[in-house]
Amino acid sequence: MKTSIHPNYNDVQIICSCGNTFKTRSTIDKKELHLDVCSSCHPFYTGKQKIMDSAGRVEKFKSRYASFKR
After folding, report:
1. Annotation-wise, does 13 bind a ligand?
2. Residue 52: burial class (beta carbons within 10 Å; 0-12, 13-18, 19+)
3. pLDDT of 10 above 90
4. Domain harbouring 13, CATH code
5. Residue 70 lies in a domain
6. Residue 59 located in a structural domain
7. How many CB atoms lie within 10 A of CB 33?
8. CA 19 to chain centre
9. Annotated binding-site residue? 38
C-alpha cells in the first residue's frame, strides 16, 4: 500500500439535535459533526412513522377492486 496518499482517519463525536451523542471514526477533519436526525429520533427507527394517504388513493383502489374474487 502506498504511503501518504490515503486520507487521515480521525475520531469524530456525532451530536444529534435530539441530544444523542456517539463517537465514530471518519475522514472528515472536524472533531464534531452535528446531525438533524439520528437512529434514536428518526420516525422509521422509532416506530412512529405515519403513512400519508393523499386524496384517498387507497380507498379508491380498494373500492375499484373490491368486486374481484381471489
Report:
1. no
2. exposed
3. yes
4. 4.10.80.400
5. no
6. no
7. 13
8. 16
9. yes
